[in-house]
Structure formats: structure tokens, C-alpha cells
Specification:
Elements (H helix, E strand, L loop, with lengths): L3 H8 L3 H12 L2 H17 L9 H19 L11 H4 L8 H20 L2 H12 L4 H8 L3 H25 L2
Length: about 170
């Protein structure tokens, strides 16, 4: 059995990042919780194999792998349940109902646009833009060279901009 104290010190600080990635990959709050729980159990089970390089990247790779393993096991061809970020966001804009409505509409459009991206693009965007990981760290997680990560990220940003362009024109 792994040293539980060492495990907690190394892995618990990354719980929010693990949940954030799982949430965007599953697009469902309850599934994300299940994935994170299963990933932490796996991480604890194999913690003796962890060499202490980058705990966050190691854990997020397990979260990613757990998500895709669950999808295969459940025979899901696509993640279809939409995640509602507004329900789970702690940062709220309190500058009035009109500003709140604008923010909610923008957030809903962004969530919808992210949801239309293929999972390989969505995951690199979440890992880079929301989690702030380096290309090398993302490469470790998705098992791809840094150049592939940069290419996917570029294509993901371009596709996201393309999906959002009709929304941008409506707001002018």
C-alpha cells in the first residue's frame, strides 16, 4: 500500500484541476465526480510507481485515461450531456441584471461552442487555457509530442473562433 500521507500531499492539491478536466471531458457534473473518484483510487493504487516528476500531469493523465476508459466501457460514442458552468462557478458578476444576462448568454454560447469541438481539441484547450499547463505537460497527459499538442491547440482555437464567429456578429 502506498504511503497515504505522501499521496495526499502530492495529489490532493490537484483535486480541482482533476475535477475541472473531468467536467469538461464528460460534460456532466455527476460523471465528473465519479471519474475523479475512480482516478484517485487508481492513482493511490499505483502511487508506488510515481517517481515524483510532475504530480499534476501524472494525475491529469490518469483522469483523462479514466474518462476514456469509462466511455469505452459504457459504449458511448460521444459525450452528450451539457455541463452548466454557471451552476458551478464561484465567480459571479454582481453588476446588475443586464450584465448578468449578457454574461450568462456569453458563457452559454462559449460552453456550447466548446461542446461542439471534438474531445481531442476540447481537452487541450481545457488543459492549456483553464489549467495553465505547458505544452510538455499536456503532451504527457495526452501522450503526444509537444508539437502535436501545439498543432491541436492551434486547430482547436481556430475551430472555436469559427464556431463563435456567428455569435460575435450578432453582438455587434
Amino acid at each position: 500500500m502506498a504511503d497515504t500521507r505522501r499521496f495526499e500531499e502530492a495529489m490532493l492539491p490537484h483535486l480541482d484541476a482533476a475535477y475541472n478536466l473531468a467536467r469538461y471531458l464528460t460534460r456532466n457534473e455527476h460523471d465528473a465526480e465519479d471519474v475523479v473518484q475512480e482516478a484517485y483510487v487508481r492513482a493511490l493504487r499505483y502511487f508506488d510507481a510515481f517517481r515524483g516528476q510532475n504530480a499534476k500531469a501524472w494525475l491529469l493523465a490518469i483522469v483523462r485515461h479514466t474518462t476514456y476508459t469509462r466511455r469505452r466501457r459504457d459504449r458511448l460514442s460521444a459525450i452528450t450531456t451539457e455541463f452548466n458552468d454557471e451552476m458551478h462557478s464561484s465567480a459571479r458578476d454582481n453588476s446588475g441584471p443586464e450584465a448578468e444576462l449578457d454574461r450568462a448568454e456569453t458563457l452559454a454560447e462559449l460552453q456550447s461552442a466548446l461542446g461542439r469541438l471534438p474531445p481531442q481539441f476540447r481537452e487541450v484547450l481545457v488543459l492549456r487555457e483553464l489549467e495553465g499547463l505547458s505544452y510538455e505537460e499536456i503532451g504527457l497527459i495526452v501522450r503526444a509530442p509537444a508539437g502535436t499538442v501545439m498543432s491541436r491547440l492551434s486547430r482547436a482555437r481556430a475551430r472555436l473562433a469559427q464556431v463563435l464567429s456567428p455569435f460575435k456578429q450578432e453582438t455587434r
